[in-house]
Write a structure and sequence with these properties.
Number of helices: 18
Strand content: 25-35%
Distance between the termini: 38 Å
Number of strands: 34
Helix content: 25-40%
Length: 767
Amino acid sequence: MNQDYITPNEWSIIENGFDKANVKSSESLFSLGNGAMGQRANFEEDYSGPSFQGSYIGGIYYPDKTRVGWWKNGYPEYFAKVLNAPNFIGIHITIEGEIFDLNTCKEVKDYKRELNMKEGWHKRSFIATLPNDIQIKVEATRFLSLSHNEVGVINYNITPLNASAKISYAPYIDAGITNQDSNWDDKFWNILGSQTENHQAFIRSHTMKTNYQVCTFMESRLLINQEQIELSPEVFKTDAKVALKYTTKVNAKDCFTLQKFAGYTTSLNHAEDQLVIAAKQALQTASQLGYLQLLQEQKETWSSIWEMSDISIDGDVKAQQGIRFNIFQLNQTYTGTDHRLNIGPKGFTGEKYGGSTYWDTEAYCLPFYMATKNQEVAKNLLKYRYKHLDKAIENAEKLGFENGAALYPMVTMNGEESHNEWEITFEEIHRNGAIAFAIFNYYRFTNDYSYIVDMGMEVLIAIARFWQQRATFSQQKNQYVILGVTGPNEYENNVNNNFYTNYMAKWCIDYMLENFEILKENYPEEFSRILHKTKLTEVELTQMKSVSDKMYFPFSEEHQVYLQQDGFLDKEMIKVSDLDPKLRPINQHWSWDRILRSPYIKQADTLQGFYFFEDHFSTKELERHFDFYEPFTVHESSLSPCVHSIQAALLNRMDQAYQFYLRTSRLDLDDYNKEVEEGCHITSMAGTWMSIVEGFGGMRVKNNLLHFAPKIPSQWDSYSFKVNFRNQILTVTVSKSDVDFKLKGSEQLQVVVNGKSRTIQSETVSA
């Protein structure tokens, strides 16, 4: 834990007291999104202190030229960047000619910032004394509508307390923004024009290179003591910015309100020549509904989301706050309604990782959306990869692979590889395995084989071809080896025979061959179509089978464990517990050279394989590997603690499982890795959900049945979660004495609890 200023609360993230040192962290933690767009929790008014301004639109990116390697054969020419989009939340405020800026105020008291996760809104309230000694009370509420996902809403109240004051609101939209992580300080946006009409303003702009067109829009409404007033605006325009300034005298103790409706229309969803018209329609809808009705809709929509996705914990407020924060961020980042969109590791909370798609989606996020939404939402994530199959084949061709072999990108927006670190771009090839595993995981959970028939088999064949070509036959070992890779543990680069990578390669080939036979026997027409399209031959099948059967896995006879990679035991095996705490996290204190020569593991690597393929190994084998590797794991990847929590729970090490759960659930709230100001770790938040459902709940799918092995941390009185299993909604409640099930569906459901079969009717059944 590196910060502790968030007030524990079951349904809200709360900051009490204004501390300038926390502003950038809070901008991340209090971020908002609605699946189509999102924004960091920047202040609406001017703020001259350190800040990280950020607004983002789903699916809109810029191919920023890489700084290194672009001149080399096969190297990605660009690094995809989610763009800092035009700012529509801004409001310039002056009080008797004094600019309102919390950084320059004489005093700020009774400051409270709240992100209400239950209802989906963000609010700040405080009393500020300006340099001119005027004291004002401020209450500012903001949300991004889920019902009308092109619209954001702001309700900003100012009440002068100690004197009447002339107050000016100047709401604005600003397209003159930049990315903090630009490689070459390129101009990402080009402004096409702006216009104003009455209380409305519009700026049209487009992205350079990718030419996405965007209309940023706003409309203002003014009230005094909740009664609407008419004020004529002064219009201020520059090439990049439009502001509408409203000024009036406000009596002491009277409340002056600005309601601002604003947002984006984009060429992703509208014809380019219709963007302003679409913006006007969005504003008309928002204006007619009004602030209060839009807020009520927001509350109702979030209530529906929570009805399915909530996990309740009794007896541990911090644990409860942690899981709900994770679930909230996941739901506002991705709604599953648009298969063109995916989930970036930072979501809509920051620029790091380019806002692009990583293997995190398939390895960590799919189970959450599969179980808390429906199979169509999950299938959209798989469709995203199928739509990019041709690009994945092109990616492999650039590296010399042939015959339809596919290498899915480590980082992408459109299917092309757009990551520019060689040790990840070319070597972290295990991401291919995550794509295949997601197909297997989807079928295992939903029993919907149609994806494999319609799309997935083509993906599996292309991936198997890659592994067959990527493996090298070692005459010395008389086995196939995979050289020059980086596993999930990125603190080991360019290693040979990473266990996880080799195991995934073998499994991918075996899984493709298994489905080849299923299709051949049961779907002859589709089988013929796929065979014709892919031109898969018997010679290839034989070669693939040989690679799988003779795959090499490094193993230590001394320790009786699979080694993370060749040569792992050559390192100086100093445990994490013996490190000076002042050197943590090591990635902020050590050179990369020193990290690579150390035994320290950024995230579960060998254990990641044991997590995916738990039924391939005995509990004793897991225990032996867990005991060997966990002492060397620094958990400096956000994806690490959840896997360890699940496995610790399986091993009945509940204290350890609980500590790992706290770390994953409060990773950002408590800033474990000292980096939350850069944005939240959205994709790893799905791992937090897994640590409860799969870890403490022990949920697995085996032999077409749901299995549970429930456990409960000593700190909790009970916990409850829901899963949508094959269109049947099952509620699971675990207490210290028993486990209860409640089923909502058309049929009874057979489950297995601690090895014993149970039949659940549409009523509560006590185990």
